[in-house]
Write a structure and sequence with these properties.
Layout: H1 2-42, E1 59-60, E2 63-64, H2 70-84, H3 87-110, H4 118-125, H5 144-149, H6 164-182, H7 185-194, H8 196-206, H9 218-235, E3 256-261, H10 268-274, H11 279-285, E4 302-307
Antiparallel strand pairs: 1-2, 3-4
Helix pairs in contact: 2-9, 3-6, 4-9, 6-7, 7-8, 7-9, 10-11
């Protein structure tokens, strides 16, 4: 009896072991099959790394690049490659361009500045109200003295370097002055980066006639090439592997109305509640309001954007 029970127990244990093994094998096969299918599905979007195409004409603000010069080709290749494969930053700049370029383009055109200079805002700040370690602020990275010299209000409560429209008007005045001084839009851009006084000294020292003749500091030597690289990628993103649907772009700010403010505002949160919105949205639409209040003792008129 005990021998029979032991025998049947052994048979049952063997059966259970075989069943568990078969089940495990089946799950493993299913997992492998699923993994293989998933791998097949994602293989179509694998990254392709290839050199950028330099066999074409390049220009900035109507001024051509001498692509028969090996030094020019290699410097441009560097900036095109760097921005093409700096994926997250370039992807976000393409999205933001759809939001902010319409505002910038209109002001550049109204003030006689080539449309290509909108790419300078990308190079300077990645189309955001950035702050540099040196204290330059806004899309155009104005230092405080420069901003004030171009009629931007800058104090503890208002900083119009963050006011896209007003700062862009100031930029057009600045870059046109550089163009008048140096006679070239490319040199005007270089002067914007390194300063007109320093550029004048280098031109005199090196007896250069164009941007491409000059051996400048590393940042300025790359600056104009970077502008052209940004222009090429943002103009033709799919040529560089960026596929973004229109619905994925950041949309221009349009759903707002303007309110005249001629008195002081004790608290922008209270102001926001009055107009059925919140403090955050007032700041998003009006980043130049850098305090929680506005004293406005001079009774100056301000235009504040309020979401609808």
């Amino acid at each position: 009896m005990q021998k029979s029970l032991a025998f049947y127990t052994l048979i049952l244990a063997a059966f259970v072991t075989i069943a568990v093994f078969a089940s495990s094998t089946q799950k493993g096969t299913e997992t492998t099959s699923s993994s293989s299918s998933s791998s097949s599905e994602t293989s179509d979007i694998s990254q392709v790394i290839k050199p950028v195409n330099l066999d074409k004409d390049f220009s900035f603000a109507g001024e051509a690049f001498p692509m028969n010069n090996f030094d020019v080709r290699e410097r441009l290749d560097r900036e095109l490659s760097r921005n093409t494969y700096w994926h997250s930053n370039t992807l976000l700049n393409i999205k933001k361009a759809n939001k902010y370029f319409p505002v910038i383009e209109k002001i550049l055109a109204e003030n006689g500045v080539p449309d290509d200079f909108k790419y300078l805002a990308v190079a300077e700040s990645d189309l955001r109200n950035a702050v540099s370690p040196a204290g330059a602020k806004g899309f155009w990275q104005f230092m405080k003295p420069t901003g004030k010299s171009y009629s931007l209000e800058i104090n503890n409560e208002v900083d119009e370097r963050y006011h896209l429209e007003k700062a862009t008007v100031a930029f057009t005045k600045y870059i046109k002055r550089n163009k008048e001084r140096f006679g070239s839009w490319l040199l005007a851009a270089a002067a914007y980066n390194m300063g007109g006084t320093r550029l004048s000294k280098e031109i005199k020292l090196q007896h250069g006639n164009s941007y491409f003749d000059l051996n400048l500091n590393q940042e300025t030597s790359r600056y104009v090439f970077r502008l052209v690289a940004i222009k090429e990628i943002l103009t033709n993103p799919r040529d560089f592997g960026f596929y973004i649907e229109p619905s994925q772009m950041y949309q221009p700010l349009a759903d707002f109305y303007e309110v005249e403010v001629k008195e002081g505002v004790s608290n922008w949160g209270t102001f926001a509640q009055k107009y059925g919105t919140n403090y955050r949205m007032i700041k998003v639409l009006n980043p130049w309001l850098v305090s929680s209040k506005l004293t406005n003792s001079s009774k100056k008129k301000y235009i504040v954007k309020v979401p609808k």
